[in-house]
């Protein structure tokens, strides 16, 4: 873990570490910014399940800039699975960098209208897909399902094996990583999610994923979405640049919003003085064009 020495934290007598999960990847696939971080953790046990049951393909869903689409394509190439991506929205040429990467990994891309895409979880639609791709293992959008939790649970175990912290903070997209983290903490420390999307739907998702367990050592802040998913106002981009002075590369869709939220809460006095905080860099750098 990387020590994060920000003046605001020091003024409030706090210690902070960054869990650099963006650097987590397969040794055989160095430098891959798609199949890393929380995407690596979410896919780990799903891939083992697919292999154990003889599936030869992975089929999943996502938007045109989806980190999960890129990660699934990369994992398929690495482990020998055919991959199919159902993409929300009309096809536009040229393909953006995320979809170009996925296609270069061998992923077959299908573009569905937003109306079609909204029906993707209906049993009839899923049955049609499985008939069209009988050897395919279905992964939900974002990779969040019950098998995603054990890999994310290992995140909490790793953090506490390195440092005893009071709070572990991370960004939330679908809620799967937070649910797995809470599962792994098993009541130790407090997990704090920061939603990258508008709305307050994450709490119900996390509760459902954790059921029947009823852990209470977690919460989600919903005030740091900066206008909604993938909205990147200038103030957030300026923050991104400032964080480079701390040797901390971020992207504005998830991690920058989360870290902004953590520092804002510090300034508000949310965390007790002398708190020990771990901030998780969940990855996602593949979707962000760097200087």
Automatic annotation (TrEMBL):
Where N6-(pyridoxal phosphate)lysine occurs, residue numbers? Answer: 39
User: Which is one GO molecular function term here?
Assistant: D-cysteine desulfhydrase activity
Q: Which cofactors are reported in the record for this sequence?
A: pyridoxal 5'-phosphate
Q: Which residues form the active site?
A: 66 (nucleophile)
Specify the Tryptophan synthase beta chain-like PALP domain's residue ranges: 8-283
Give the domain of life: Bacteria
Record key words, sorted: Pyridoxal phosphate
Family that this chain belongs to: Belongs to the ACC deaminase/D-cysteine desulfhydrase family.
Give the protein name, as stated in the record: 1-aminocyclopropane-1-carboxylate deaminase
Organism listed in the record? Haliscomenobacter hydrossis (strain ATCC 27775 / DSM 1100 / LMG 10767 / O)
